Amino acid sequence: MQDLKGRVGVVTGGGSGIGRGIALALAREGMNVAVSDIDYAAAGAVAEEVSALGVQSLAVETDVARPESVAELADRVYSDLGAAHLLCNNAGVVTFKYAQDMKEADWDWVLNVDLYGVVHGVLEFLPRMLASGDPGHIVNTGSIAGLLPAGTPGIIAYTAAKYGVVGLTEAMKLDLADTQIGVSVVCPGGVETQIVQAGRNRQSRYGGKVTTEMIENASAPQEENTPQDENNAGELMQPGELALLIIAAVRENELYVVPHSELQPLVEQRFDRLYEAIENFMPIDPRTR
Ligand SMILES: NC(=O)c1ccc[n+]([C@@H]2O[C@H](COP(=O)([O-])OP(=O)(O)OC[C@H]3O[C@@H](n4cnc5c(N)ncnc54)[C@H](O)[C@@H]3O)[C@@H](O)[C@H]2O)c1
Fold this sequence. Notes:
By secondary structure, the protein is an alpha/beta fold. It has a single domain, classed as Rossmann fold (3-Layer(aba) Sandwich), CATH 3.40.50.720. About 40% of the residues lie in helices and about 10% in strands. The protein is built from 7 helices and 7 strands, in the order E-H-E-H-E-H-E-H-E-H-E-H-E-H. It has a 7-stranded parallel beta sheet, sandwiched between helices. Strand 6, helix 6 and strand 7 form a beta-alpha-beta unit. The protein is globular, with a radius of gyration of 19 Å. It binds nicotinamide-adenine-dinucleotide. The site of nicotinamide-adenine-dinucleotide has 32 residues, from helix 1.
């Protein structure tokens, strides 16, 4: 989607960090922006910053883990701003626990926000975007943890969710090939945000607000050369910097935004292991079946 000016962008998790960076960057391009967040005060503050840039803004309280809440967001966007051209499914949380310590509520929280949050966005917005006939684009915020287990030990649910976000975006690219809707998935390493304090907005049904902390001095086995955590995985990037790369990807309809080039060897390492595994098991002798 080349032309952004005058069009409408929607950003979930827009009240902080990468979402705020995207919302402001879209406004600077002349887009009207709906800033949606589970933290309404934070969404409101960013919506004010967006308005100050001379475009229309809308703050909406949304819990992306709840389909009905995302449906309300879509209704508000279409009634107040008239359209949605760019949907950024960006809201995300992380919990720091080893696999053996995870409870069902931990899995539910992270998968429902990080993976189902994206699914709900697609379910609610995509049909309307297609029906409009206008050019459109969907940006899903994945992570380098969606390409390899890139974190400190203890982000198993996050890794599972982000692999899902990468996979669904890749699959969506195929499904939407003959339509006017493009897709991108964003896979950064460390970005300077409040992600480590994700528990500040945990919903009561998953256990309520909590201080989430990274696991220090992790004793679980770690892969050689695996970065310690997203926020240490290479140099921390600023959200505004990442937002400009996302806008470029929207304009060029690029599938991947993988901005931390220093992580390339780790991605290669993962694929090398997969190639090795394939080579080791091929060819299959039919007589052994
Ligand atoms: N910061 C990093 O290093 C990094 C790296 C890779 C990917 N990401 C991803 O970037 C995205 C944005 O995170 P961030 O780093 O800006 O963190 P952040 O905590 O600064 O912002 C996340 C926003 O999402 C909101 N949110 C949380 N739960 C929500 C829900 N149920 N519904 C709606 N909004 C909700 C929060 O209130 C917050 O405003 C996430 O998907 C995260 O996984 C972050």
